[in-house]
Amino acid sequence: MFSNNHDIPPYSPKLNPVETFWAYFKGTILKGITPKNLTELKQMVIEKLEMLKNDTAFLQNFFRD
Questions:
Q1: Structure-derived torsion over alpha carbons of residues 28, 30, 33, 35, reported in degrees to the nearest 10
Q2: Which of 30, 37, 56, 58 has the most crowded Cβ, counting Cβ within 10 A?
Q3: How distant, in Å, are the alpha carbons of 1, 36, 37, 63 from that of 24?
Q4: SS3 label, residue 56
């Protein structure tokens, strides 16, 4: 039986592009925000992700050959 679950080391940006994206997102896009609580943080993160989701050229930068 085949599984879609792959064993990837916990931090391996070359194998898991989302690691590089989250590092950029946290260090650049969320830098300096000061939410008052977890709900506000969640709302801010969702708003920022919504702004980026259609920017395919930007998102493709996180995928390397």
A1: -170
A2: 30
A3: 37, 22, 22, 13
A4: helix
Spatial neighbors of 11 by CB under 8 A, at least 6 apart, are: 19
Looking at the domain assignment, is residue 9 inside a domain? no
User: What residue numbers bound the domain in which 44 lies?
Assistant: 33-65
Q: 23 lies in a domain?
A: no
- pTM of this structure: 0.67
What are the pLDDT tens digits along the chain (65 aa)?
A: 445 666 666 666 667 778 888 889 999 999 999 999 999 999 999 999 999 999 999 988 887 65
Please indicate, yes or no, if residue 17 is contained in any of the structural domains.
Answer: no
Domain count, the chain: 1
